[in-house]
Structure formats: structure tokens, C-alpha cells
Design goal:
Its cofactor is Ca(2+). This is Glycosidase. GO terms for molecular function: hydrolase activity, acting on glycosyl bonds; metal ion binding. The protein is an alpha+beta fold. Among the domains are: 48-138; 153-242, Sandwich (Immunoglobulin-like); 263-341, Immunoglobulin-like (Sandwich), CATH 2.60.40; 353-428, Immunoglobulin-like (Sandwich), CATH 2.60.40; 438-528, Immunoglobulin-like (Sandwich); 672-723, no CATH class; 1044-1144, Immunoglobulin-like (Sandwich). It is built from 20 helices and 68 strands. The strands form 18 sheets. Strands 56-55-54-49-46-45-58-57 form an eight-stranded parallel beta sheet. It has a six-stranded antiparallel beta sheet with strand order 61-62-63-68-65-66. A five-stranded mixed beta sheet has the order 3-4-1-7-8, with no helix packed on it. Helix 10 (687-697) crosses helix 11 and helix 12 packs parallel to helix 13. The model is unreliable at 1-44 and 140-150 (pLDDT under 50).
């Protein structure tokens, strides 16, 4: 407990006062004639005690070496008396005082059990208690005076006025107060402050082993109470006793941590051992798992390599749970979550203060929120221009500025380190001009078949000279660039510059600056001609969440609104376009030629870092952007590396904040953006949402006054009948019928409000919005939540529109989330993966003119497609008689799919293989299926499905990269990043503990890339990541697939379990390959000729139409390619510089 003297006075209960013993005008009634002559404590010797440690009660036999058998004199017979339990495994026996002094050597036999039988002796003279546990230890002599206690024992009593104290040992009725020379009612207690009174018991009465009785007398009332012994510490009484713990033994001073040595020191978390080799200069070899790490006071484990310049090492838990091969050079290094740092990543940094809003110019009162770079920093600030110190205002809540003010602030972290004072200047004046100028084009940016002419017009709200600077070089414009137009732009028509003739792909980047210094950056991209996107089956895909990949610009990092629920130490919005541009070479070094990024459109929800809660489909979320790094820049940088970009799109739903264009719920600024859109505490509801608020809270309710839960309900009400008069959203409330029609007309989650995609207003808006992204150069769409939209809507609206805009090679593939180990989901084609790859024979016979007709048609379409037996089949994927055939795509819908049945079965490679070869007939052409093992949503069934895949990867990858389909991996798979972590827990745990953790620490560094999968000069953490065994495995498979067209686009025939042949033929190439994974297989009826194994470089000639091939070991693979005939090229030894690898060998 805390010292009661320092707390508020406590009142003695009235019942206790009423029960007090009233003693007046008499001596101590408990004193007897026997008591009156006693002294403080008897000093007569009481004997010497022998202590013995045993796990069972022992007996003791004792005699003088050359004298009497003491126990026989006591009347005991062998093996002597049982010893008494003294606690903590000790047993005791006291030698009677009659035998003292013990001036001869004593012999002892302790007999506790057959395992505990000890004979020993103790040299004379024996003057103190003795302990034996294999050797003797002696206490001080019993004749020595009682040691002084380390602390006094003080009695505290809570009372209104100064009391007296009378106390005695209850059992012996010895009045200590009288022995001290006091008369009844005893000495006065001393004032201890705040209503407490104290009295210190003299040391001569210690130890207080027995119960003590007290009478406190004050103000004509007395209180009698007892305190049970032993009393070893001060005690407080205010109706009940509270005891202070005895003064603890002072902790020994910690031994100072050894200073880092000249050489290498490495720290690690959650590992016990370190194995090392290849030291320079050389060190003695150690055997696996190496040596134990030492414990540091910071909680880290560490190990020193004095005078060492470089070393290779592995951390492990005594051989289990090991890292990949690591290496370090001179210095101090911390290893955490798979990456290195040159400073303790757990230590708080020097505080850096920021504000929201940022300092600037404002035309109205501003509420200022301060924050520091560490979440537990203390912030001190001033508003009067004075220098802040730790006696200044301490920040604990936002404050309001009504006029121009300089906020001076600094932070102090938990280790007492103070940051630099920052000056945050807020120019607040209602006359300030804060409206940026605007620039528009005479024709919309986008795709055009032929050359175009374009002019640009600038407008501004105030007079003075406005200048528009521009560049067409693919970078952001600055005030050092060419001026396109300048002048007073405040008139209605503004100012218009000259005509620009655009005959090729061109991007105009403008910086427009008005007289007040307000700036606008805007880009216009014109794509002239039809882009040549090629066959997307030639690609392999690296899937990433942009915000979780790499942080190229910390200044745009943003915490999600629900961050307080998560404990995230870093912003959820962390990665950005700039970071992705900077790490495109890393992805290409792995061998991937396409990136699939999560949705880029503007989002709005409490936890929207992933991009699936849109609030404006036509605008890119500004939280991804940095100066000079917008979405167009990212697309251009991807294409500059001969790569492709896949944009994740969501047409099924928006978040629950409506859509700024289609169905706004909040007041908007001149650009159409919600006012305060990233400040949920200051959203301004529009009339529609206020009507929703009244529907929830009553006729006088306002949205701002509602509690958050009711605000949510108000938003939902504004998306439903009768307020959604235009039927922008479906009004059906989803009741959990995942296999029923309502799955296509109900909102499946609070942040997934189902758009009415049967409404032409909705589909026209979505088509117009996403055509702009195609015009910017996006190469493909990955379509989210496909089974929640009728196939009829896809086939009549979305697919033909985007195919027309993007060209015949514009690739679209959908997520039909059929978590089912079968091709047909619950035997219902409408919600099954293959279904969406087909056109319906009668798709254009359904009425389609109005919303009402479309709603009726899609319901009838569902009813018309309930039978599996009515569904078409295809052999487009099948290789017949070793001859490639032109596929029949006349009934192809235009939408490929993620192979969800294969994904769901991938916990065991045999299950994935079987469901693929057994079900490919149901797809229009399964060679277009996008394949993966795990993703941002799911791992395979039973893996378990909600955790990042932690099983054996190599065999799954080897199958994916050689079998039909387009292989895809989710970011971090290359190092088994966060394996076993729960993929998505919402705002209920830190993101860095989930499968959506930030990956950037693992790709710090750089790399020079010569081609896909070919690189040099990798540095930093990126070099370690690229050298991970699984990363090398993936890189090798990418190289092999890229070298063999049959593995990209070929039809296949099965020759055995995971043994197959593939062929692809066009006007330029004839590619034929035999593939065997983990086993041996004899291929019959194959073309004669010379085959090259691209894995080993070996060649083999087939003359009799058969060959037996093998590749033993899970993850191993052989790919034999026929060469030498027309259009059959020798691929060579593709893996010459990599083979052998850990699993491909």
C-alpha cells in the first residue's frame, strides 16, 4: 500500500467509537501483581537449534565424539527424535539448554529416507544455531544481543484530536507502556499530518511476535483494538489495520552492461541461440545450434564478436524456429521481425511535433491538435511566443486559435529525451485568400485513336497575376519550368493558353500559382492510339496492399480513425505510390512482370487503409500521393519497366458514407469533396443525412448530436427507402443467405453497402469512372466481390464497356469467393467460379431498358441458372494428340477468374492438383485462371484459412508456375512473411501482428535490374530478402516460366500425378514442354527430337516416342523443352547461374 500519511484522512466508523471501552480514573486494569515486577525480555539461553534440509521429515541422532550420547540421556532410542518442520524444506531440532555450552565436537546422523541418510560432524565450540545441507553454516552466537531492527515499528492512528496510546502483549498481559515508565492512559501520540497520529515502539520490545492490544484515548472517547503478531512493520489504524511491508532488502546494484566491443554486436528478440561461421578474421567453429545468447537489461538478447569485421549467422531457439542465413559487418545491429536496424527499434525516438491542421494560412478560426512522433510523448507548448519548457502548458486536448498565432512546442519521450522546439505559425485572418486556382482542358484527358489538339484554361477567385508552369517530361512541374500562360485569371472566362498538338502518349503536368501563393498541381494524360497490352498469360503477378508495402513519403502517413482501438504503433496509411515506384525494381528482380494493387479510389471508413470502402469511385485517394508521385506517375513507371499494372476494383458496394458523386451524405466543397472528409468529429451532414438522423433520433435530432452508433444507423437509413429515392443502393437487408438470391441484392457488411447495379445511373457512373483509369494506362482490373453482382449485369454492362475502352487484350479477372471444395458452390451455378467465365446463350433476350426491368431480369436470370446440368463445358485447355488447337472463345464472357476452388484446396498440393484437372472443363478456358495459395483475405481451407499460409511452399509454387493459369503471390511470401499470423482482425489488434503487416523494413536498400529475374548489386535488407531460399525458388520459377511459352499459354495433357505435357503454337513460336514434379514419370507418344531440361541444362534425344523423367523431392521440378524444329528454339540452361537451389536440385 502507499504510505497512509500521504492520503486523505479516513474517518473512524461511528459503530467502532460506540463500542469503545471507556476507562477513566483507574490504573491499567490488565496489570497483575506478577506483571508489575517483570523486566523487558529474559536473556536466559534457550538452547541451540540444528537445521537440516531434506525433502522428507528426518530423524536426528546426536552424540559427542568422545563423550556422551546426548539423545540417550534424553531418553530417546535409535534413530532418535523426529525433527520439526521449519519451512522451505528445512527441519529443526533444539538441543536443550542443559547441555550448553557445547565444547566438544558433535557427531550427527540425519536419517530422512534411503536416499537422504547423512553422517557428519560439527567442530566445537558450538555457540550458535547451525544449518546443514551438505556443508555447515553457523549463525551468530545466541548469547549475542538481539540485533537492532532495520526499521522502527511505528503505530499510526486516525483521530480528530491528539490521542494517547496504551499497549501491551495480549497473552502475557505485559503492559509495554508501563514498562517504559508511563502511567495510564499512556504517552501522547505525535502529529503525523492529515489527521494521523504516530507513536514508535521502542526497539527493546522487538521482536513483537505475539498479539498486541491497544487502547487509543482522545476527546473523551477511547478505542480498543488488537493487532495480530508477528508485528514486523509499521501499522495504520482507522477502524481496521493496514500493515506496511517490511523495508525490502536493497536490490543489488545491477552489473553494468558490457560496452559494445570493437567488432560486431548483434541483438535479437525471441531467440535463444546464435550459430555463426565465415567470420573475418576467422573464429573457432561452433556446432549447431551454436552458443547461447546473453541477456541485456533492455530485454534484448545479444552476442559480441570482438575485433570481427564480418560474419554469417543464424538465430534460433536452440535449433528450432530459425532465421534464414544472415550476415553482418562491423557495428551494433538489432534484428527484429526479419530485418536489421542500426539502432534499437524499440527505443523511443527523439520527439518530433506535428499539428493538424498543418501550419498555414486560414480564413477562419482553427482547432489545433498536436501530436508527437512517439505515442506516449509529453508535449509542452506556448502561445505567446515565449520559449516553452517543462513548466509551460502541457498539451492534453485540442485548442482553438481565433487569430494569427505562433505555437511553440516540444516533446519529451519516456526516457526523458527532449525534442527540438518547433515553431508552428498559423496565419488566421478572415481576409486571407486561401482558394487555389483551377485549370481545365478543352477536351477530356483520356484515350484517343488519332492525334488531338488541346488548350488549357486557368481561373482564380481573386485578382493579381496567376502563372501556370508545365512539363511533359514525366515529372512534377516547378516554378523553374516553362510558363504555359500568365495573367489576371479572376474573370469568368479566366485565361487560356496556346494550342498543344498531341500525336503520341503525353502527360501534361501543371503547377498553377496565384498572387496569394495558393497552388494547384494537376495532370492531364492523353493516350493516343491503341495500347499493345499483349496476352496476359505471359505475366506473373505480385499482389500487394499499397499502404502496407513501402513508405516512400512519411509526410503523407495517416492514422485511421479507429486507430485508438488497435494499438497500432505506426500509421495504417503508411505505404504510398512513391514507395511503390521506388521498389518496382525489387519486384522485377524477383521476376514478376505485373503488379496487382489494392483499390486506389477515395475511401472513407474507420479502417479504410485497404481501399475496399470507397466514397468516390472517380477520384484517387490523396493519401497515396506525394508531390510528383500521383497515380499516373506510378502507371508510367510500371510501363517504363515493361511491366503491367492491375487495379483492384469494387463495383458491388461503397462504404457507409455514401458516394461523393453518386449519393452524397455530407456537405461538399467547390471540388465536390466532403468538407472535413478525414475528420469524423467534424463531418457536416447534408439535408439527406439530417433526414436520416431524424429517422433515428426523433424530429429534433441532428446528425452531429447523435452518438457514433446512431450516426451509423442514420447513414444507413439515408441509403434506404424512403430516403434513397433514386434507388442508388439496394434496399434489401441481408439476412445471411450466402447461397440465396439475396447475396446479390443485400449489403454483406456495415462498410459494404450494396450498390444497385441494376440501376443505369449506377452502372453509367461506374463505367465512366473506371474508363478514366483505363485511359491512364491501367492494364487490367481485378474485380472484387463478383458473385454479389448478377452475371447478367457483367455481360450486358461492365465487361463489353471496358473491353471496348481497353481493347481486346485488356484483362479482367474476378474474385468469386466460393469457399467450397468443389467446382460448383452448393450446386448453384449463379454463385460458382466457372459460371462467370461464360456468356449466356440468351443474355440479350432479357428486358433491359429501365431499372425496374433490369431488377426483374436479374432475378429471373438467377432462377434460370440454378441447374448445374444446364451449364456448358469446354476443352479449350486440353492438348489433344500433342497438337495445339485454336481455342473457341465465342462464348467467353470476357472475364477470367481467380481459381478459388484450387486456392481453397491448396493446403495439400495433391488436392489442388486433383480439383484442377478434374474441374477445368467447367471454365471457358482454365489457362486464363489466376492462381494463388493465399491472399489478403484467405489461406487454403484447414491451413487454417484465417492465417497467412505457414505450410510447405515450394511444391505449391512449382506446380503454380508450370501448370496452367497465371501464378500470383501475395507480398512477403518470398520470405514467408508473417506466416501463421491471423490475416485480418479488423481494428482489434495492431496491424503489425497480422498478415497485413508493413513489409517495408525487409526491402530497404536498392538493386540494379537488367531484366526480369536478372539483377546485381542488391544492398541492405533487400539483398537479404532476395537471397532468402524461397525468394530464390520463386525467382528461378519466374525465369523458367518466362523462357518457355508453353508454360505461359499452352494447352495441357496429363501423363501422371503432377506430370504433364504442354504446347503453345502461333505464327512465331512452337513451344512443347514435358513437366514432372516430385517423382518419376514415363511419357508416351511424345514427339521425337532433342529436348533440353531448362533446370539442369541437360539435353536428351527421343527417338521412340517415349521418355522417363524424374524430379525427386517436394518442390523439385524438371522442364524438358523440345527444340530444333521449325519455330522451336533452344531455351538453353535457364538456371545456369542459380542451379542447384534448396528445393530445385
Amino acid at each position: 500500500m502507499s504510505n497512509p500519511i500521504s492520503v486523505l484522512r479516513r474517518v473512524v466508523p461511528a459503530a467502532l467509537i460506540a463500542a469503545a471501552v471507556l476507562l477513566a480514573g483507574c490504573s491499567n486494569p490488565f496489570q497483575t501483581s506478577e506483571d508489575s515486577g517483570s523486566s523487558a525480555r529474559s536473556a536466559e539461553p534457550t538452547g541451540i537449534t540444528i537445521f537440516y534440509q531434506s525433502d522428507a521429515q528426518p530423524t536426528l541422532w546426536l552424540w559427542e565424539t568422545d563423550g556422551d550420547a546426548i539423545f540417550e540421556l534424553e531418553g530417546y532410542s535409535w534413530p532418535g527424535p523426529k525433527m520439526s518442520d521449519a519451512g522451505d524444506g528445512w527441519w529443526s531440532y533444539t538441543i536443550p539448554a542443559a547441555y550448553l555450552p557445547l565444547e566438544r565436537e558433535l557427531q550427527f546422523i540425519f536419517d530422512g529416507s534411503t536416499e537422504r541418510h547423512h553422517e557428519t560432524s560439527l567442530a566445537a565450540p558450538i555457540t550458535a544455531d547451525a544449518w546443514y545441507d551438505g556443508s555447515w553454516e553457523l549463525a551468530e552466537s545466541p548469547d549475542d544481543p538481539e540485533p537492532e531492527p532495520e526499521t522502527d515499528i511505528t503505530i499510526y492512528f486516525a483521530w480528530d484530536s491528539q490521542p494517547t496510546i496504551w499497549y501491551w502483549e495480549t497473552s502475557e498481559r505485559r503492559a509495554f507502556s508501563e514498562l517504559e515508565g508511563h502511567n495510564w492512559p499512556g504517552p501522547q501520540m505525535s502529529d503525523a499530518g492529515e489527521g494521523w497520529w504516530s507513536y514508535t515502539i521502542p526497539a527493546e520490545f522487538y521482536p513483537l511476535d505475539e498479539q498486541i492490544s491497544f487502547i487509543f484515548d482522545g476527546s473523551g472517547a477511547r478505542v480498543e483494538t488488537t493487532l495480530d503478531g508477528p508485528v514486523e512493520a509499521s501499522a495504520w489504524y482507522d477502524g481496521e489495520w493496514e500493515i506496511e511491508d517490511p523495508e525490502p532488502e536493497p536490490e543489488p546494484e545491477p552489473e553494468p552492461e558490457p560496452e559494445p566491443v570493437d567488432g560486431i554486436r548483434v541483438y535479437a528478440e525471441n531467440f535463444s541461440h546464435i550459430y555463426y561461421w565465415n567470420a573475418e578474421p576467422a573464429l573457432d567453429e561452433v556446432s549447431w545450434p551454436g552458443v547461447e545468447l546473453q541477456t541485456h537489461s533492455t530485454g534484448w538478447s545479444y552476442y559480441d564478436f570482438p575485433d570481427t569485421e564480418s560474419i554469417n549467422l543464424i538465430f534460433s531457439n536452440n535449433g528450432g524456429g530459425q532465421t534464414a542465413d544472415l550476415s553482418r559487418e562491423s557495428g551494433e545491429w538489432w534484428f527484429q521481425d526479419g530485418s536489421w536496424s542500426d539502432q534499437n527499434p524499440n527505443a523511443p525516438g527523439t520527439p518530433v511535433i506535428q499539428s493538424s491542421p498543418a501550419p498555414g494560412v486560414f480564413d477562419s478560426t482553427q482547432q489545433i491538435e498536436l501530436s508527437s512522433s512517439n505515442p506516449d510523448d509529453v508535449i509542452y507548448y506556448t502561445l505567446d511566443g515565449s520559449t516553452p519548457d517543462e513548466g509551460s502548458l502541457q498539451y492534453d486536448a485540442p485548442f482553438v486559435l481565433e487569430s494569427t498565432t505562433t505555437v511553440r512546442a516540444f516533446g519529451v519521450n519516456r526516457e526523458g529525451v527532449a525534442g527540438t522546439i518547433v515553431d508552428l505559425v498559423f496565419d488566421v485572418d478572415e481576409n486571407n485568400d486561401i482558394t487555389p486556382p483551377q485549370i481545365t482542358s478543352s477536351i477530356p484527358a483520356g484515350s484517343y485513336t488519332d492525334a488531338v489538339e488541346v488548350q488549357f484554361t486557368v481561373t482564380d477567385n481573386a485578382g493579381g497575376t496567376t502563372r501556370a508552369y508545365y512539363t511533359t517530361e514525366g515529372r512534377a512541374a516547378t516554378t523553374d519550368d516553362l510558363i504555359y500562360v500568365a495573367g489576371d485569371a479572376s474573370s469568368t472566362n479566366g485565361i487560356t493558353g496556346g494550342t498543344e498538338y498531341v500525336a503520341e502518349r503525353t502527360q501534361f503536368n501543371f503547377l498553377v500559382v496565384d498572387a496569394a501563393g495558393n497552388q494547384t498541381e494537376k495532370s492531364f494524360f492523353y493516350n493516343i492510339g491503341t495500347p499493345d497490352r499483349g496476352d496476359f498469360r505471359e505475366e506473373t503477378i505480385y499482389f500487394l496492399m499499397t499502404t502496407r508495402f513501402y513508405d516512400g513519403d512519411p509526410s503523407n502517413n495517416v492514422y485511421a480513425w479507429d486507430n485508438a482501438m488497435t494499438g497500432n504503433p505506426h500509421p495504417e496509411w503508411r505505404g504510398d505510390f512513391k514507395g511503390l515506384v521506388e521498389k518496382l525494381d525489387y519486384i522485377k528482380a524477383l521476376g514478376f512482370s505485373a503488379i496487382w494493387i489494392t483499390p486506389v479510389v477515395k475511401n472513407m471508413s474507420g479502417y479504410d487503409y485497404h481501399g475496399y470502402h470507397s466514397s468516390n469511385h472517380s477520384e484517387v485517394d490523396p493519401r497515396y500521393k506525394s508531390p510528383g508521385y500521383d497515380y499516373q506517375r506510378l502507371i508510367n513507371e510500371v510501363h517504363a519497366r515493361d511491366m503491367k499494372i492491375i487495379q483492384d476494383v469494387v463495383w458491388n458496394h461503397t462504404g457507409n458514407f455514401g458516394d461523393e458523386v453518386l449519393h452524397p451524405l455530407f456537405q461538399q466543397d467547390a471540388t465536390g469533396s466532403y468538407l472535413n472528409w478525414q475528420d469524423p468529429d467534424n463531418h457536416l451532414a447534408n439535408d439527406l443525412l439530417e433526414a436520416g438522423a431524424r429517422a433515428i433520433g426523433g424530429e429534433n435530432a441532428t446528425y452531429a448530436a447523435l452518438q457514433p452508433g446512431d450516426q451509423f444507423q442514420a447513414r444507413i437509413r439515408a441509403l434506404r427507402d424512403p430516403l434513397d429515392t433514386e434507388h442508388i443502393y439496394h434496399h434489401h437487408e441481408f439476412k445471411g443467405g450466402w447461397e440465396q438470391y439475396e447475396v446479390q441484392i443485400g449489403s454483406i457488411a456495415g462498410d459494404c453497402q450494396d450498390l444497385n447495379t441494376e440501376n443505369p445511373v449506377v452502372t453509367d457512373y461506374l463505367i465512366d469512372a473506371y474508363n478514366r483509369y483505363i485511359d491512364m494506362g491501367v492494364d487490367a482490373f481485378r474485380i472484387d466481390t463478383v458473385k454479389h453482382i448478377s452475371r447478367l449485369v457483367f455481360n450486358r454492362e461492365f465487361l463489353p464497356a471496358f473491353q471496348e475502352r481497353g481493347g481486346e487484350d485488356f484483362f479482367m479477372f474476378g474474385e468469386v469467393a466460393t469457399r467450397y471444395r468443389s467446382i460448383w458452390n452448393s450446386d448453384n451455378p449463379n454463385i460458382s467460379t466457372p459460371f462467370y467465365t461464360w456468356k449466356g446463350a440468351n443474355d440479350y433476350s432479357y428486358p433491359w431498358a429501365t431499372r425496374e426491368e433490369r431488377e426483374a431480369s436479374v432475378y429471373q436470370y438467377w432462377q434460370d441458372n440454378l441447374n448445374v446440368s444446364d451449364q456448358p463445358s469446354s476443352d479449350n485447355h486440353v492438348l489433344i494428340n500433342n497438337t495445339y488447337r485454336e481455342p473457341d472463345y465465342s462464348m467467353f464472357s470476357g472475364q477470367a477468374v481467380i481459381d478459388f476452388p484450387m486456392h481453397w484446396s491448396f493446403n495439400h498440393v495433391s488436392d489442388a492438383w486433383n480439383i484442377a484437372v478434374g474441374g477445368d472443363w467447367a471454365y471457358n478456358d482454365a489457362t486464363w485462371n489466376v492462381t494463388y495459395v493465399d491472399s489478403h483475405d484467405y489461406a487454403p481451407d484447414t491451413a487454417p484459412e484465417n492465417q497467412r499460409y505457414a505450410g510447405f511452399w515450394p511444391d505449391k509454387l512449382s506446380l503454380m508456375f508450370t501448370f496452367r493459369g497465371i501464378p500470383t503471390i501475395y507480398y512477403g511470401t518470398e520470405i514467408e512473411f508473417m506466416k501463421g499470423a491471423v490475416i485480418d482482425v479488423g481494428p482489434n489488434a495492431p496491424l503489425d501482428e497480422t498478415g497485413r503487416a508493413y513489409f517495408g523494413d525487409h526491402i530497404e536498400g536498392s538493386v540494379d535490374v537488367q531484366d526480369f529475374g536478372r539483377y546485381s548489386n542488391a544492398t541492405g535488407a533487400m539483398a537479404e530478402t532476395l537471397s532468402h531460399p524461397l525468394a530464390r525458388h520463386i525467382r528461378a520459377l519466374n525465369l523458367v516460366r518466362r523462357a518457355v511459352p508453353a508454360l505461359q499459354k499452352g494447352q495441357y495433357a496429363v501423363d501422371g500425378f503432377q506430370a504433364f505435357r504442354r504446347r503453345y503454337t502461333d505464327d512465331e513460336v512452337d513451344s512443347f514442354a514435358l513437366v514432372v514434379l516430385d517423382g518419376a514419370q514415363t511419357f508416351h507418344n511424345i514427339p521425337n527430337g532433342t529436348y533440353r531440361d531448362v533446370i539442369t541444362g541437360e539435353s536428351h534425344t527421343v527417338s521412340n516416342g517415349s521418355a522417363t523423367l524424374s524430379a525427386y523431392g517436394a518442390g523439385n521440378v524438371r522442364v524438358w523443352v523440345l527444340y530444333g524444329g521449325p519455330r522451336q528454339y533452344d531455351p538453353g540452361h535457364v538456371l545456369a547461374d542459380l542451379f542447384p537451389l534448396q528445393w530445385i536440385n
